[in-house]
Specification:
elongated; two-stranded antiparallel ribbon; five-stranded antiparallel β-sheet; Thiol Ester Dehydrase, Chain A; alpha+beta
Length: 144
Amino acid sequence: MNEIFRTPFRVRLDDVDYARVLYFARYIHFCMVGLEDFFRDGLGLPWDKMLDADHVVMPTVNVQIDYHSPLRFGDAGEIAIRVGHLGNRSIRFDYEMRQLPTGQVVSEARHSCAFADNRTWQTCQIPQRYRDAFERYLYEKPAG
């Protein structure tokens, strides 16, 4: 248990602002790209199957991000993803973005989602096979 999924990325020209640093909203975009990789490569549960066969969606409830250091055009990075909380109908993904090759943490994010049936948009229990897959990456920080 307590595995960490890691996926690389590179800062492209269209990701930066006039100062040639990663535009603040693109940090969240890279987290979402990493999350899609996590479902496909880490969990073996690609989103197209989740949407089309399982009729499950995960609407975002809350996103919090802390910025520590800028990334610049051309920088390589890595996003580490863990499950920070696993409820009955909701989940929180925790992200840590690092600049490579230095390994410096540039941002940390927390992303809470509800689970819903995409036919009714009513919240639903997290399907058991998703729960089982998430538990490999579950890391709940101790209180205090």
